[in-house]
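Re: weekly structure request thread

Next one in the queue (430 aa):
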Amino acid sequence: MSEYVDLLRDNKDYRQLWLGSVISQFGDWFNLIASAALVANLTGTGTAISYLFLARFLPLFLFSPLAGVLADRYERRTIMIASDLLRAATVLCFLLIREPGQIWLLYVLTFVQFALSATFTPARSAVLANVVQPQELVPANALDSLTWSTMLAFGALMGGLVASIFGIAEAFFLDALTFILSAFLISRISGPIRAAEKSDRQGGWFDFLDGLRYLKGRSFILGISLVKAGGALAWGAINVLEITFATKVFTLEFRGLTGPFEIDSATAVLGLIYAVSGLGTGLGPILLRRWLGDAPKLLRWAISGGFGLMAMGIFLLSVSQSLGFFTFATLIRTVGSGTIWVFSAALLQMIVPDRFRGRVFAFEFAALTLTQSISTFWAGYAQDALGLNVRQITLSMSIVALLAGSIWLLFNLRYRSEPLPTEAGPTALN
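Done, posted below.
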């Protein structure tokens, strides 16, 4: 772990970027649990919960192309700060939602919040490669994943407790505060944040299309940029199904010295599930990197292993009969999904030139959110329209994960003997 400590100690700009992530991601999990609990309380249907996740995912898909252009044309630090401050204002408006007739407002505000997130994420992914050295990319991405996972574990657990004991409004207020603190920390990044050369700029959509042409001529990079989209076809539905498991399948009873005390069991169970998810997505990439190292070809094989673990974990979810076994299966699933996420991002940052990096990550993010939205809609539709139970739908997602992993394995075998492209060398492997 000393390598990660050294990175945070010696690189001030990365430290500010990392601290901003720590704080804003902590609030994100407060927001998700509070929103899910609010939808469940106001409606109680699987489709309504699916709509919540669609409101989170679709703006990421719709606005990511524009966000990628912005990240390559304008100062990335300014984009992130503006996004954080506007998200803080949006989240505070969640406090206005009080009754079932206002559920539409929850969806609208969620859409706006994640439209702003769509401008933040490609800029941050591009900035990461600006503030660390090339040899630090894999450890920086692994540390980012560990941070996301730790905040998932701690933030989800605390969010579940705060929302169940104190109330949903407090969780939304804390989320808004974290965005303000994140903006302050990002403002302290002092190093140069590069963007595309002015001579390359043609205009918004022309710039985005130029980025697509870049990917079209480089099938290897295109394949890596679609890895997360393949994984999201499976894990998108699990986001919805976990809420169903927490509200309808598994329950907890809380006892004090004088007997049972009142607490929202479903919210606490969901917080526990997310906490275990954070543990898996954090430990998986760290342990695999320690075992395999940073060699790009080994990272590609690790992604194959990630798909296998994810498929196995989702299958075990479908047959779980106890909360303990369900959390164990969640750990396996998220070790796999965390590996897929971290190693595919590190590979892209290694090989994509800076002038295209924002648009490539925007494309990756748009593809990810599109497949995640499809998977999410399927989970709600299958429950309410087709009458499938939560275990049957979960089983179908394990098959999807296995198919996506098989496609990546075949792709990896196709390019196993070819050199990894770099900025300095050829970038088309056709």
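The chain is about 80% helix and 0% strand. Residues 146 and 282 are 4 Å apart (CA to CA).
Next request, please.
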